[in-house]
Amino acid sequence: MNVIAVTGGTKLDGVVQIPGAKNGVLPLIAAATLATTGVTRLTNIPYLSDVIDLVNLLKSLNMQVALNNDEILISTERIGKTKTVSEHAGKIRGSLFLIGPLLARKKHVYIPYPGGCKIGERPIDYHIEGLEKMGATFISTSPYIKGYVNGRLKGATVNARQSVGTTLNLIMAAVLAEGKTVIHNAAKDPEIEDVIQFLTNMGAQIHYAEENIIEIEGVTELTAVEHRVPPDRMVAGTYLIAAAATRGSILVKGANEHHLKALLDIFKEIGVPLKNEANGIRVLAHDQPLTSVNLVTGAYPEFPTDLQPLITTLCLTTDGISKIEEKTFLKRFTHVPELQKMGADITIDGSTIYIQGGKPLYGTKVRAYDMRAGAALTLAGLIAKNKTKISNAGFIDRGYPHFVQTLRELNADIGYYYTQTPPVINASRIIGELIQRSESTKYRYFER
């Protein structure tokens, strides 16, 4: 088990460059498998274990993939298999994004139930329901999901129920389907907008009929393109909150004020000083007294559930009692008992928590049960007295590239201790790459 050790009492100060988005890169990699010709080049790839797992998953399907530093090259003119390997697919939620593309390209998929953080109920029923309306048939052979379609998927009217994953899967299935697909109640997160732009550049025909209705006219082929993964708004939000919680000053480069509007509105309400700059957002919270707040999580553009554990930690530093109602994942409070071990005064009432601010925290041993909870506990350690040790810190690696190193560069007294071999994403171990298209229109693939 991996452990983060942090000694509190220092104010974070400096500049941080936000990496590519975890919630953006995984569906982009899956969408790249829809290209029937060419080599996809994705840049600004974040250094994450989930990325490695998804790349290995594609390789297990005999796809040609090369990861080198912060870019990925993907050629899927030919897909050799449709049965994924449990070793990789069972680790990450992102494996779910392959269901739609594999049905669209190969008419068949055989995939384990996806893994990921345990943050509450995240059923895949909506995905299955929508794809069945497009002509797919699914058989549950636990722990696998088997799906197939006779011929091409058929355009249909489907309901995404504001689920991000469902919206993405249905979009990716529909772009190569026969006829027109209309997706009602589509989620509208920035990561979805980015995937739509990526697929449109590949030749897909996608447009918004209304705010939450997406119309897709299926095509027969898509061409690979180059695309840059956008900055991670959740990572940006985490560092903005960290600056506020420690009463520090950080310039968060790549932070998009429009994508983070819900968080920035809360900052203004509780009194966090902000400055919009040309390349990001700066927090200037030196010794600033902050007030309590009431907030409710919800679908974008409302306050994101992924930042709820982090804002909980910030509320511990404010005056008064804050109230947070969790409406996305009703039981996403695994961080609360761990914060209570540190002296936090937090009460859980169903899907709502009440946070008494202004009480000191004390370092102790705590445990992360998901990546955002782990980040929240790390922030709590930054403001606690003495040393805090966060076990199960490997969860944090799934969503935060170089998290400890970045915090150390921002003046944190923090270290990472491995009790198991860490995931390796290193150019020195990956020298394979897809060679430029030859005259025969085929690609050669090399890997050491």
UniProtKB/TrEMBL annotation:
Keywords: ANK repeat, Cell cycle, Cell division, Cell shape, Cell wall biogenesis/degradation, Cytoplasm, Peptidoglycan synthesis, Pyruvate, Transferase. It comes from the Bacteria. Phosphoenolpyruvate binds at K22, N23. Its main location: cytoplasm. It catalyses: phosphoenolpyruvate + UDP-N-acetyl-alpha-D-glucosamine = UDP-N-acetyl-3-O-(1-carboxyvinyl)-alpha-D-glucosamine + phosphate. Pathway: Cell wall biogenesis; peptidoglycan biosynthesis. GO terms for molecular function: UDP-N-acetylglucosamine 1-carboxyvinyltransferase activity. It is found in: Cytoplasm. This is UDP-N-acetylglucosamine 1-carboxyvinyltransferase. It comes from Seinonella peptonophila.
